[in-house]
Every structure is written in structure tokens, then in C-alpha cells.
Amino acid sequence: MTSAPLPLPGGDALRQSIRDAGLKVTGPRLAVLDALEQNPHSSAEEIFARVNTVLSGSSPQAVYGILAAFTGAGLTRRFDPPGSPALFERRVGDNHHHLVCVRCALVKDVDCVIGEAPCLTPSDTSGFTIFAAEVTFNGLCEQCQAEAQAGITA
Fold this sequence. Notes:
With 154 residues, the chain is α+β, with helices and mostly antiparallel strands. The chain has two domains: 11-79, Winged helix-like DNA-binding domain superfamily/Winged helix DNA-binding domain (Arc Repressor Mutant, subunit A); 95-150, Ferric-uptake regulator, C-terminal dimerisarion domain (Dna Ligase, domain 1, 2-Layer Sandwich), CATH 3.30.1490.190. It has five helices and six strands; from the N terminus they run H-H-E-H-H-E-E-E-E-E-H. The chain has helices at residues 11-20, 27-38, 44-54, 60-73, 142-150; strands at residues 42-43, 77-79, 87-89, 97-101, 107-110, 136-139. The strands form two sheets. It has a three-stranded antiparallel β-sheet.
């Protein structure tokens, strides 16, 4: 007798991506991956809050552990914007960068700055083989610009 699929959001594609990464499909893993699918650029705390609505017995430590396993397996990417907690996303396998609004913290993806990864070449590699560059563009999003011009404060 085979067991029924986990009754969680996400579907077969998310289950298969977890299996393809060499990980066992569990309810908490599926819930974390689904939360990231629905809400890219989320902090571990935000992911925990979403997971906790589906799996009330989950813990922040479990979510951190799952995110570490997913990042190590290449299912997620960790992004560390200056002055805020680490964010996680499902867009992996490329060397994209991020636009960050310094007022409302909106994060948007931007493709590689110029050409192929790593997009930037340091003046001195110190013997490193460079395979990726992380660039964060800080500024104001369109809505925050409009609010600033209208004199609305955050």
C-alpha cells in the first residue's frame, strides 16, 4: 500500500524538485518551498510565519535548518541585503542581482549586469577563480519616489 501525497500546497513539481536535490520530501520542507514559491525574497522569520499557518507545530529552528539544507542543495539562494536580515529566493542557477528600495525594502531581481557570470571582474583576484558576483543596487522604488514627491512620509 502506498502512502498518499502530503496534503500541503505546492503540488508535484515542488515535491519533485526536493527529490531531484537528493532530499526527502517532508511536510515542513514542502511548506517552506511553497512559501518561497509564493513569496520570493522572504526572510526566515517571514517564511516561518507562513509555514506556521499550515503546520502549526513547526519551529523557527526547523525553518532555518530547512533553508540551510535547501541552500546547500541548490534549491534556494540566500541573499544578504545590507542592514536587513538574510532573504531567500527560489531563483537559482544564474548570477542575477537585486534592486532594493531603501525606504520600503521592496526587492526586485535584475539580470546579470553585463554579459555572462560573474558579470564583474575584480582588479585583483588574489588567485581566486571567480564564478559569481553579488551586486545590490540601492535606491527608491517608483511608489516611494511618488510618495516622496507628494510629501508622504513612511
